[in-house]
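Predict the assembly for these two chains.
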Amino acid sequence: MCGIVGLYLKNKALESQLGALFTPMLIAMTDRGPDSAGFAIYGDEVPDGSTKLTLRHIDENYDWGSLAGSIKDDLDVTVDWFKNSKVAVFKVGCEAEVIQNYLTEKEADILILSAGQSIEILKEVGLPENIADTFNLVSMKGSHIIGHTRMATESAVTMEGSHPFSTGQDLCLVHNGSLSNHNRLREELKREGVTFQTENDSEVAAGYLTNRLRKGDTLNEALQGALKDLDGFFTFTIGTRDGFAVVRDPIACKPAVMAETDDYVAMASEYQALTTLPGIENAKVWEPEPETIYVWERDQ
Amino acid sequence: MKTIDLQEHTVRDLNQALHDQAGECTIREWEVLEPKGQHNIACGLDQSLAVDIKGHAGYFCAGMNKKAHVTIFGNAGQGVAENMMSGTVRVKGDASQAAGATAHGGLLVIEGNAGARCGISMKGVDIIVKGNVGHMSCFMGQAGSLVVCGDAGDALGDSLYETHIYVKGSVKSLGADCIEKEMREEHIEELTELLNRAGVEEDPTAFKRYGSARQLYNFKVDNASAY
């Protein structure tokens, strides 16, 4: 089943409340996905040439401070970091490839959940309420956020198999549905240089978009391609550094509802997840059409 | 009139109170506040009640309805009025997919748009949609009528039996075995009556009629010996 939710703020004055507005949305989708939950939040950007990473280590007591010291010494760059529950957020003064290659070589047990200038991905096994609590979602700030509550079907209930999935810088995807051609597509994408961390079908969709965007597609073009090349059931919500997109497959059996006011655009699997948003009573509320791409992007 | 606030009472409480009216009716008029997209509101009614739902409803609202008149002052989620037997369900906003699915009777009026599969496997209900309907609407429709004042999506009336379909706007594509048919006097009369019952002002002569070509397997007498 699974539940997906997304909130994109048009009114910058609300950015300090992003986490508070989003927490009840995620929790409202518990019935649709009680196995695990996660979210990707965009905000607190690092400048061009710097990279923000969300990292996890197999050892929960891993010494992140010592890692920060090593990065500083070895790469001769600035490092700023903080810990949020089991996840560490690192801000490093170099390009993403440099630090990603360094971490892959140095520490095989470190999992890079996300990399970019804006994105942070936080996800965990368990009830959405507990996960929101664990990461103190309610106090988080940012411009947009997408989340997922998972009822596992195609792969095991693990932190790694939880959504959102990110396979490229500042890109992430949440998925309600299942894909049937993910194995073949994964092999094709691997040959084109996309790396995958799991056997999950939704990660392949994220990898597909990453590959298209890397080749110069706009988000809209990449999603047009996805409608043609991905076989299966899906409602996707996609986050990029500047934007937020929603798309449903042509059959559209996976639900979605959207709401828009002057202040925000929100999407959810069910309307119940939108009822706590301010001004929802007078919002434009509609069901996104099948095979139609909805994109909102900030001006740079 | 009795008012029930769904932020103070559960949907189960509400439905039980409405079901309790089935034997002896003591309260005819009901108002439901703060539905907030909850599922299964006002399902399984079996009495001539008027139920006003003030807000958006979730899945299967007014499902299995018998005799009651349910009005949703907002949007309805999937399967509104599914398997309705009689009575009226009116949606003031949009309805999601599978509106009126398998319904045997009664009247379903959707004042906004309906999503995919509107009237799927309908068995006698009359559905009037003021806006558009999505793809695969009236799939395997067996009896009753579907009236669409806007446009219809892909594969309208696929594998249709005897449901009458009237569409004023464009039809993106017709499903298997569904064809446009002549609009005769009796159809104008039927459509006029349907629009009147729904309280929708449209010119019946502006509509086109679609129905089954009766060419699929189950219409062939040669296949009768298989049973």
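The domain at 46-117 of chain A is CATH 3.30.70.100 (Alpha-Beta Plaits). Chain A touches chain B at residues 250-253, 255, 257, 270-272, 274-275, 281, 285-287, 289-290 (CB under 8 Å).
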